[in-house]
Amino acid sequence: MYSIFLVDDEELELEMIRDYIRWEEMGIYVAGTALNGRDAAEKIEVIQPDIVLTDVQMPVMNGLDLAKQVNEQFDWIQFVFLTGHDEFNYVKSALNVGAVGYLLKPLDLSEIVSVIDKVKQRCEEVRMKNRSIRVTKSNIVREMIFEKNEERLLNLAGSYHKLSRDSEPKTYTLALLSIDSQSVTPSGLSMEDGLARLQTYMEEWLADKKLLADFVVCREGELGILMDAAYHLSRFTWEDVLKEMQGTLGFTMTAAVNEEPEELSRVQDLYRETRFMLEEMFYVGNGRVIYAKDVQRQLGSRQIPPFQEAAYFEDIHQLASEQAAQKLREFFSRLVKLRITKSEVCDFAIGVVERLLEQIHEPMTESHRRAELYQSIYQCRTIMEIEAIVLEFARHAIDTLEHRFMDKNARLVHQVRTTIDQTFHQAITINSLSDQVYLSPNYLRSIFKEKTGMTIHDYLTRIRLSKAKELLADDSLKVQDVAQRVGYESTSYFISLFLKSQGVTPNEYRKSI
Q1: Nearest-angstrom CA–CA distance, 464 and 487
Q2: Residue 155 CB partners (closer than 8 Å, separation 6+)
Q3: d(C-alpha 445, C-alpha 450), whole Å
Q4: Which residue ranges of the chain lie beneath pLDDT 70?
Q5: pLDDT at 90 (0 to 100)
Q6: What are phi and psi for residue 309, nearest 5 degrees?
Q7: Do 212 and 206 meet the contact criterion of CB atoms below 8 Å apart?
Q8: How many helices (H) and strands (E) does the chain have?
Q9: Which of 113, 137, 226, 512 has the smallest count of CB within 10 Å of its CB?
Q10: 3-state SS class at 505
């Protein structure tokens, strides 16, 4: 629908026009009224209607002067004049100030419908033109953000200012809205659809507030909003609109709002700074409004602090889920405070998960499983999501151990595997292991093979060779030293086992790493 503003110095006549003409049937709604030109000018500046229907002859300020004043600021507002004087001079004056048409008093309904149809057509033409200009300006801004040539950058800025009809230089602020992909997927929307809905919502919200902005899709799931710095939104406004959007659209987004105004020619700096602010989302989480003062620039360490991994794994083995989770949460809280870089946090999380799986004898031997783990963690946009993945693996480990401990034989096999993991470098025999669990050697062999799918000897060999591969990365160690450190007194036997298992000798393996 289009909005219309009514102006007439005769109050009774103004009420008749407002209440008895069926505006809604014509696709029009009355946005406001005024009894004189001066009052109308003040209200129109705030309301910014599509159409103004005004009497020509009025005290204080007549309709022609009102049209001239309004058109200087809002040249897209369409004027229709009311006059009781069927005189050519009035009609000519009205058309000279850009009026779409005029209506004679007393009003004739069919004449009103005819004129309004013409006005609506003009309004639609104006909307199409403005939409085209907005699209062009948005494309220019996007080009400027990624343009490398300085001369080309200045030319683009000049084109933008021409389209904006700027009479004097302006400064701009930028907000970046980033959609949380994990919140979009459950709704069945693609990221592109989610971005389109987000832009439509913001366009309508700003239009309702009579504010203009240029919308730029900077990256997948990221919408830039460039605004005249004079109309910059407050923090509280952004927080309110973000909350409203998330409730209406059904997915989560984060807003980085850069309040520092910049000239258009420096839009690349503005974008770079705002993008840096958006990365703070990794530490504060989704669904927030982030300002420059929220970003802790002095931090950003790559040095991971020590983690009580042995105590953490002990809690897992003791099935103390709350204690283990508390240790992990406290550690991740430290990572947030220190602003440890994302890559370091991801590598730490992957390492903890891999070692945890080894602790419960579920090593990640398949390459595709390892790739899935890397992908799931590196795709996380917040440190909270990474923490949640590690916690989930911890819950899996405890559930696995609980299940094993309910099975007496599984519990004994777990005990034997743990002993091998911890004492592989010592002399280990089937008799020494069976003595620890109070089983005969043959029965232990049987249940170990049943629960693990391999013999005790094969398991011991796998653990020892795995540790040997780690030690071979140290060039200062001789092959003989490596053999002894993993429990083999005979170097030649160690070499033959390594060759049979890996297809290369220890020295050949060392050269390949």
Answers
A1: 7
A2: none
A3: 9
A4: 85-94, 97, 297-301, 365, 367-368
A5: 67
A6: -65, -40
A7: yes
A8: 23, 10
A9: 512
A10: coil
Q: Where are the beta strands (DSSP E) in 74-117?
A: 78-83, 101-104
- Residue whose structure tokens are 């000897």: 457
* DSSP H or E segment with residue 33: strand 28-34
With the CA atoms of 438, 442, 444 and 445 taken in that order, what torsion angle do they form, in degrees rounded to the nearest 10?
Answer: 160
In this predicted structure, what is the pLDDT of residue 300? Answer: 61
Q: How far apart are CA 19 and CA 11, in angstroms?
A: 12
Structure tokens at 95: 């058309």
Phi, psi of 223 (to 5 degrees): -115, 125
Compute the distance between CA of residue 259 and CA of residue 176 in angstroms, rounded to an integer.
12
Residue pair 70/7 in contact (Cβ under 8 Å)? The answer is no
Q: 391 CB contacts (<8 Å, ≥6 apart)? A: 325, 328
Kindly state the tokens that stand for 120: 């609506």
Rg from Cα positions in the chain? 37
Residue 313 C-alpha from the chain's centroid:
34
H/E element, 28: strand 28-34
Q: What is the dihedral of CA 380, 383, 388, 390, to 10 degrees?
A: 90
Helix, strand, or coil (residue 142)? helix
Phi first, then psi, for residue 263 (nearest 5°) are -70, 155
Closest to 286 in 3D by CA, of 394, 392, 388: 388
DSSP conformational letter for 50: S
Residues 381 and 282 sit within 8 Å (Cβ to Cβ): yes
Q: Do the strands 28-34 and 222-228 form a parallel or antiparallel pair, or are they unpaired? A: unpaired
Strand partners, 33: 6
**C-alpha distance from residue 63 to each of 56, 100, 186 (Å):** 4, 14, 56
Q: How far is CA 186 from the centre of its chain?
A: 16
Token output for 72: 């200087």
Give residue-wise pLDDT tens across range 268-304: 999 999 999 998 999 999 999 999 887 876 556 678 8
Bridge partners of residue 7, in order along the sequence: 34, 54
**Dist CA 162 CA 151 (whole Å):** 17
CA separation for the pair 313, 397 (Å, rounded): 10
Other beta carbons within 10 Å of 489: 9
